[in-house]
Amino acid sequence: MINDILCVSNVFENPQEIIQLAKKQSFYSCEENPSIKNTNIQYKGERTLQLHAVLQEKDYVDLTEKIVKKIFQQVPTANITLQPICLFHHLIEKDVPDKTWLHRDTSLYSGVIYLNETFIDKFNNHGTKIIKNGEEVNIKNEFNKLVLYRGDYLHSANFGFGNCLDNSRLTLNFFINEINISISNKNKVKEKHYDYKT
Fold first, then answer.
1. Sign of CA dihedral 48, 49, 51, 55
2. By the 8 A CB rule, do 101 and 131 touch?
3. Residue 104: inside a domain
4. Is 197 contained in some domain?
């Protein structure tokens, strides 16, 4: 139901609201982040705590629902249950990727939504590098665009820019750990059901 790499433009109707939400959060380096102590999580730049831990549940569901509807817009009649994780992340110009940045996630799918309206393009459009079947795919950083990809694909950010939260590479990172999709035909005939696993 999801391509192994999916790009969706114009995710949020009002992306400025999401940017303002990001600016209200506290950002932590990997060494300072209290939520990942005693874990193997590593990252460059700074990120927030997972948003389900800092937002009201209704606000978190409203936010993630906007993303989920864009991801699954090709199946509008489906009932979808999933476990999403969201956080904001920013990289500045001193954050220059090297081979250690390439990594795999433990999630089924990972993704970013680019939230910087303008920047001076210096390196690979400051987007996302994904290694698919041994080939490098570079996704451009375009405002309010989501790129979703399989978590087991090697991937990394492509260069930070700016020198503070107001002018840096700002993304909303999105992870999906479990998906249940139910699609039914209301006019279906009553036949026996069979379960299939892939």
1. negative
2. no
3. yes
4. no
Local structure of residue 16 (DSSP, 8 states): H
How many domains are there within the chain? 1
**Residues ≥6 apart with Cβ < 8 Å to 98:** none
Whether 142 is in a domain gets the answer yes
Secondary structure class of 31 (helix, strand, coil): coil
For 126-150, write each residue's pLDDT tens digit: 999 999 999 999 999 999 999 999 9
Domain interval for residue 132: 5-182
Cβ count within 10 A of residue 144: 20
Nearest C-alpha neighbor of 171 from the set 159, 182, 179: 159
Give the whole-angstrom CA distance, residue 7 versus residue 71.
9
Residue 46 has pLDDT above 90, yes or no: yes
Q: How many residues does the chain have?
A: 198
CA 114 to chain centre: 9
Domain CATH code at residue 65:
2.60.120.620
In a domain, 11, yes or no: yes
Type of residue at 40? N
